[in-house]
Amino acid sequence: MEVTLEEAKTYLRVSTGDEDSLIESLISAATKQVQDITRQSDEEFMANEEKALIRIRVAVLYTVGYLYEHREEADHHALNMTLRSLLFGTRKEGF
């Protein structure tokens, strides 16, 4: 289910390898943030059904894009509220 470096670079419209390590770090952070928003364990997160996986991939890519573009002044509260809206149908009620 993991978003790949190439997929993220395409989404970000980055064609060089100069920022690969940054983008890989953003993918990791975004994946963890989306997992936290959905309140799922590692096993549950990886076992999502296809319909939920599409939402999750979009949310991860959105988060990567947001963090990439706003690295100096990211509004994490606004980002989390957007992710909650995107992932409403996938989010568990509690842990």
UniProtKB/TrEMBL annotation:
<dbReference type="InterPro" id="IPR006450">
    <property type="entry name" value="Phage_HK97_gp6-like"/>
</dbReference>
<dbReference type="Pfam" id="PF05135">
    <property type="entry name" value="Phage_connect_1"/>
</dbReference>
<dbReference type="InterPro" id="IPR021146">
    <property type="entry name" value="Phage_gp6-like_head-tail"/>
</dbReference>
<protein>
    <submittedName>
        <fullName>DNA packaging protein, putative</fullName>
    </submittedName>
</protein>
